[in-house]
Amino acid sequence: MQLGFTNLKDKQRIHRDKWISNNSKSTGLKIHRALSWLKAAEECNNTDMGFISLWISFNSLYVNDTSSNEIYTPERQVFKDFFTHIISYDTSEAISSKFWQDYSNLFRFFIDNKYVFYPFWYFQQGQIADEEWIERFTRSKQLSKKALGHHDSATFLGLLFDRLYVLRNQLMHGGATFDSSINREQLQLGYKVLSEIVPILIDILIENPEEDWGNSAYPPVLND
């Protein structure tokens, strides 16, 4: 069954009482927010806005309230830690199965796209030599194949989202023209990758209301 907003929303309603009994209001809020952006992505007919909506949906799941934490953790490390955490609760191996199922016609093409590999842009800016980014690119692709072969989903997710993060930054920091044809291939691939992975991540949180997924950032504040 293809996971999407409708069936995940139905599942959320079924598990809602478990969140209350486990005092997991933060988990409920994370899922509620993630589902709202998943719905926005599904109803959107534009790849750029769809990608952004899916990224926000993903962001809703892994971000925690760090307002009282004086130690800054880089964003990419935060979501990689989240992957290590969530993979341990993927008892049905839905993520690994998705990687194997769609590797040849989706994930491999995205990982092999140089325009979503950070060192390629370091080379373009003159920070590293041509040979260096190519060597890093080759190693990264080899590592992805090794991770896939060893069913190391956390490492594979990390490599995948490193590349998605390049697209995310390109869009969110004004590095792309809206609906441009120049970056269309990698954006369409990135959108497809997120649309396949994000619903699975939401589903795992729904299935595990007893787990501590961290406090939601910017919780609703009741009026005085």
How are the SSEs placed, and which strands pair?
Blueprint: H1 5-21, H2 25-43, H3 47-62, H4 75-87, H5 94-111, H6 118-124, H7 130-149, H8 153-172, H9 184-207
Helix pairs in contact: 1-2, 1-9, 2-3, 2-9, 3-9, 4-8, 5-8, 5-9, 6-7, 7-8
Q: What does this 3D model show about the protein?
A:
With 224 residues, the protein is mostly helical. It has one domain. It contains nine helices and no strands. Helix 5 packs across helix 8 and helix 6 runs antiparallel to helix 7. It is globular. The N and C termini lie far apart (45 Å). 31% of the residues are buried. The model has no long low-confidence stretch (mean pLDDT 90).
In short:
This protein is mostly helical and 224 residues long. Helix content is 69%, strand content 0%. It has one domain (5-65, 72-207).
Ends distance = 45 Å
Which radius of gyration do the C-alpha atoms yield? 18 Å
- Uncertain runs: none
Query: What is the overall number of helices?
Result: 9
How would a crystallographer describe the biggest sheet?
none
Structural class: mainly alpha
Helix content: 55-70%
Topology, number of strands: 0
Mean pLDDT comes to 90
Total domain count = 1
- Indicate the proportion of strand residues: under 5%
Shape by Cα distribution: globular
N-to-C order of helices and strands: HHHHHHHHH
Which structural traits does this protein have?
mainly alpha, single chain, globular, 224 residues
